[in-house]
Write a structure and sequence with these properties.
91 residues, alpha+beta, Arc Repressor Mutant, subunit A, two-stranded antiparallel sheet, 4 helices
Length: 91
């Protein structure tokens, strides 16, 4: 069974966005289940939308397949555009 709250869930969306932004900049790939487990974020899609529109982060979405028992599900995996990370590193 998954322990959804390994870390204390954030009380506000700003804290979640901060943690998600930091993880993406470090090169992590994030799925909804990882966001729930790691950041206590139930609505990753909304946080990604805010990071894209308000902070203009070039976040890409890749559909991946994950196993769920005998079934395979497609989920979105979010990551920061590698070109953006390399440009930030040069500054």
């Amino acid at each position: 069974m998954l322990n959804f709250f390994k870390k204390k869930p954030q009380d506000d969306t700003e804290g979640q966005k901060r943690q998600i932004r930091k993880a993406l900049i470090k090169g992590e790939k994030i799925t909804a289940i990882k966001a729930l487990e790691k950041f206590g974020c139930f609505n990753l899609k909304a946080r990604i939308h805010e990071l894209r529109t308000k902070e203009h982060l070039p976040i890409t979405t890749k559909m991946i397949e994950v196993s769920s028992g005998e079934k395979t599900k497609r989920v979105g995996e979010y990551s920061l555009d590698p070109d953006y990370k390399s440009k930030k590193a040069k500054k």
